[in-house]
Amino acid sequence: METIIVDRDLCTRCGICSDVCPSKIIIPGDGSSLPLVGEENAAMCLQCGHCEAFCPTEALALNLRPEERMALPEGAGEISPERIAFYLKKRRSIRHFTADPVPKEKILAILEVASYAASGGNSQPVQWLVVHDPQRVKKIAALTMEWMKSLQNTSHPISSYIPMLFAAWDKGIDVICQGAPHLLLANIPEGNPIAPTDAIIALTYVDIAAPAYGVGTCWAGFVAGAAAFYEPLQKELGLPAGHRCGYAMMLGYPKYKVQAIPRRKPLQVAWH
Questions:
Q1: Residues 196 and 153 reside in one and the same domain
Q2: Is the residue at 264 inside a domain?
Q3: Using CA atoms, how far apart are residues 245 and 211, in angstroms rounded to an integer?
Q4: pLDDT (mean) for 81-102
Q5: CA pair distance 267, 270, nearest whole angstrom
Q6: Do 107 and 40 fall within a single domain?
Q7: How many C-beta atoms lie closer than 10 Å to residue 31's C-beta?
Q8: 262 located within any domain
Q9: 46: number of CA atoms within 13 Å, CB side?
């Protein structure tokens, strides 16, 4: 099977596809021949799509569901520095949610955006588990609190906070999932040394994209910690064999609206 599909009439033999290929496996075309990937190098293709993305005449398509190819409209994705700065600075970790459920279709749309997050070698190792049922979220929070009991009077970094957390929990305050109706887990293959970073990058895409859909997020570090060590929670999550939780995130509609941008510490930058 051909790795790339090239339209002879549109291809100008400019060589950009060959130049941008991370694996350097595309042989550039000349006056009579088209760009191609030799059979001996086909397995080295990362399926990243650089060749397709940078082709100035839309002459080339990666042979990966080519029928789904989508043209990039003129000016699409162009955002001024001022607008992107305000958007990112406005993002807040949400710890107060409404009870309204986020439709599954909206969550899927956010995850579709996150599927374009960078990953090592374009391996795209992240699989998603969406806990959409609020009652299941509460059960996961309770199991996380059970795990915390084992950390009391230990050298664990959160040991000193556990009495305070239990005092709040006993008053009905959800200190684990903050009352979020949904929970998102980025699951990764065990034994993949790069996948934990890939999970964080993918969740960061979710974190950044979600506000554009009106959805609030908060990183669920307690859940992620429990999912790594507490077998009862692992059984509740039912992850595929050979996979583990890379990290977790709360999802829901924010109860309050962001009205201002707070300050940050002065930048500390070294130049060489």
A1: yes
A2: no
A3: 24
A4: 97
A5: 10
A6: no
A7: 5
A8: no
A9: 18
Looking at the fold, whether 52 and 117 belong to one and the same domain comes out as: no
Residues 247 and 140 in one domain: yes
Total count of domains within the chain = 2
**C-alpha pair distances (Å), 214 with each of 85, 107, 114, 122, 209:** 18, 11, 16, 29, 9
Same domain, residue pair 57 and 97: no
Q: 175 is in which domain, residue-wise?
A: 84-252
Token digits of residue 50: 């650089």
Residue 36 lies inside a defined structural domain of this protein: yes
pTM above 0.90, yes or no: yes
Cα separation values, 28 from 32, 41, 51, 240, 262, Å: 11, 14, 11, 42, 51
Among residues 197, 209, 205, the alpha carbon closest in space to that of 247 is found at 197
pLDDT tens for each residue of 202-227: 999 999 999 999 999 999 999 999 99
Asked if residue 232 belongs to a domain, the reply is yes
Mean pLDDT within 94-115: 98
Total Cβ atoms within 10 A of residue 123: 14
What pLDDT digit, counting tens, does each position of 128-164 carry? 999 999 999 999 999 999 999 999 888 888 898 899 9
